[in-house]
Structure formats: C-alpha cells, structure tokens
Design a protein that fits this description.
Low-confidence stretches: none
Number of helices: 1
Largest sheet: 4 strands, antiparallel
Oligomer: single chain
Order of helices and strands: HEEEEEEE
C-alpha cells in the first residue's frame, strides 16, 4: 500500500480536464463584442463589490481588470473551529483589436462587469497629406 496525496490527485485531474477540453479553469470568463462604434467587454466577477474592482486602459488597446476581496472578519463571540472564507484576487487583461477613446464607461451589475469602449474614428476621407513635387 502506498501513501498518496489526495490534493495532488485532484490537481492532476484538473490538468487532465484542462488538456482534454481546452478550458482554463482559473480564467475569468470574458466576452468581447465589436459593434460599429465600440468594443464591449463583459466579465463574470461574482461576489465582488463595485469598490473591489479596478479597471484601467493602457496604450489605447489593453484593458486590465483586477478585483480583490477579503472575506475574513473578526469573530467577536468565539474562536474559529473551521475557517473556509478567504481572501480572493483575480486579474485579466484583454487586448482590444483596435485603439479606443479615453472616455470608456464601466458598470457592474449582478456579478457582471460591462465596459463600453468607443472606437477611435479615423477620417475615411483622409488619405494622408499631399506633398507637392516641384
């Protein structure tokens, strides 16, 4: 009889599932939708409060979202016998297909973060600057 670590067996099972189904079980589920005038990013962030979420835009194309919460609370009337609530943090960066304006808007409702990012509108009639040849 051999001693096996049950936690390593569980990790191995997750690795097998990830390899077979191509799912990243630790990733933040994210949708990226393109319309004529904007990109819309939706992320599932259940259990977070609005003040726990930080959204930043860098280089006109990289949207970064971090969320952090601390579920621990002091027990005033006893000693913990079991404590399963913990601190949780996650982050996800989405590279947008095109540059966006700085006036993005974000909302958070029912555990879903929605970010509207207006596209930078390029003047389609502008083919550049004419340079006269003498």
């Amino acid at each position: 009889m051999t001693d096996t670590d049950p936690f390593s067996e569980i990790e191995r099972a997750f690795d097998v599932l990830t390899d077979q189904f191509g799912a990243n079980l630790g990733a933040v589920p994210t949708d990226l939708v393109e319309t004529d005038d904007e990109f819309v990013v939706r992320m599932d962030l259940p259990g977070f409060d609005t003040e726990d979420i930080d959204v930043t835009l860098a280089e006109d194309r990289k949207l970064s979202v971090t969320a952090e919460r601390d579920e621990s609370a002091e027990s005033a009337d006893g000693q913990y016998l079991t404590r399963e609530r913990r601190r949780q943090s996650l982050s996800r960066t989405v590279r947008l297909p095109g540059p966006v304006e700085d006036d993005a808007a974000a909302s958070y409702e029912d555990g879903v973060l929605t970010v509207h990012l207006p596209k930078i509108v390029e003047d389609e009639g502008d083919d550049g600057t004419d340079i006269p040849v003498n």
